[in-house]
Specification:
transmembrane helix; transmembrane; Integral membrane protein; 2 helices; 69% helix; DUF3311; membrane
């Protein structure tokens, strides 16, 4: 398991952990523009999750290019 793949895993797991840990955001304060915390926190994670998924995808592409280059140069891909 390479550090790059660990980073990919963290990017993909973080939104699940944040949303499944309901006790951390099951409250009304602080409100943002009159919207209770419970709602705007979840909507913020929609944006954050998108950014993290895009980051994971770009890291995956980089990892695959690196593996293909090592394989083409006669190196062993692990």
């Amino acid at each position: 398991m390479t550090p790059l793949r660990v980073a990919i895993g963290i990017c993909l797991v973080a939104p699940f952990v944040a949303m499944l840990w309901v006790g951390s955001y099951a409250k009304t304060d602080p409100a943002f523009l009159g919207i209770p915390f419970f709602y705007w926190y979840q909507m913020l994670w929609v944006i954050v999750s998108t950014a993290l998924t895009m980051t994971a995808y770009k890291l995956w592409q980089r990892d695959q290019r690196g593996r293909a280059a090592r394989s083409a140069n006669g190196g062993e891909a692990k």
